[in-house]
Amino acid sequence: MAPASEGHPEQAPGAPSTPRPGAGRYGEALFRPEQPGEGDRIDHAALVYDPFTRQRLRSLGVGPGWRCLEAGAGTGTIARWLAEEAGANEVVALDRDTSRLEPLAGPRLRVHTADLTRIADEPDLGTFDLVHARFVLMHLPERRALVSRLAERLNPGGFLVLSDAVDVPDPADPHSAYRQTLNAMWRTLAQTIGTDIAAVRAHPHALRAAGLSGVAAELVCPPLTPGTSLTAFWSETWRRMRPDLLIAGGLEPAALDEALAYLDSAGLAELGPGMLTAWGHRPGRSARRGA
Ligand SMILES: C[S@@+](CC[C@H](N)C(=O)[O-])C[C@H]1O[C@@H](n2cnc3c(N)ncnc32)[C@H](O)[C@@H]1O
Questions:
Q1: Shortest CA distance to 193 belongs to which of 201, 182, 185?
Q2: From CA 56, how far away is CA 58, in angstroms rounded?
Q3: Averaged confidence pLDDT in the chain
Q4: Which domain of life is it from (predicted)?
Q5: Rounded to 5 degrees, what are φ and ψ at 67?
Q6: How far is the CA of 40 from the centre of ligand 1 (A)?
Q7: Which residue of 97, 130, 141, 286 is most buried, as measured by CB atoms within 10 A?
Q8: Which domains does the chain have, with CATH numbers?
Q9: For ligand 1, which residues put their CB under 6 angstroms from it?
Q10: pTM value?
Q11: How confident is the model at residue 27 (pLDDT cuts 50, 70, 90)?
Q12: Does the pLDDT value for residue 55 go beyond 60?
């Protein structure tokens, strides 16, 4: 396991230097951006979830006149869609690693390299009509405080939209290699970088606690079937995490091999982990909507 990042905002002064569980960071202890294929792995998931995200953002009214923050923008598929197709006035694509975003920069798409957990130190970013973060907050132990900080960045009437993973295990199948591998993955993510998918179901409550109105949530679970982008995403994720799954996750190598073979098999049929999206808006009427 890679060491914890230095100067972590939640690290107590004088804390021992040995990493505590969950003290590593996304992009350091796991999913390092310079690893070959990491962009493709993110794109496999984006291909599956982008249509749902676009539909939700469209239904919230995103379009000309909007200023948007895409937080943890990854490879920029949604940032680019907001700028080029939805017609937003300005999109700020923020990520701790912007190597895959730089080629997308243009008059309406600004690329910003920053640690989201330190967004309070970025007053020049301004305020937004949409703040969107997908598959990011689940990986950040500061998620609850971040919901408030992101809500503070909204213009009156502006929307905060959060999407993260939710697992829907089959209670009748606690022991299959597939289930053992998923359980080991969540355990490993929790222990190494502090990912918490149980907390995702609290997103609506966090949005309300941050003072937002019109809070709502929905869950989509695209089918996990042979030869799909979703299957490629999980297969690539598990291959990438192999040493961590075996050591931190306590998974038997044979179980991981069996689960990977199952993902590659014609018989694959699972309700895989899905995406919960929760949203709410800052009270007040937006000038953008002509009120
Ligand atoms: C799983 S990817 C999701 C990418 C994109 N949102 C999507 O759904 O396609 C998580 C992204 O969050 C970024 N990220 C993780 N921790 C971050 C932090 N503390 N500050 C800024 N970005 C971060 C990663 O670099 C990565 O691009």
A1: 185
A2: 5
A3: 91
A4: Bacteria
A5: -110, 125
A6: 14
A7: 130
A8: 38-281 (3.40.50.150)
A9: 26-27, 42, 46, 72-74, 77, 95-97, 115-117, 134-136, 139-140
A10: 0.91
A11: confident
A12: yes
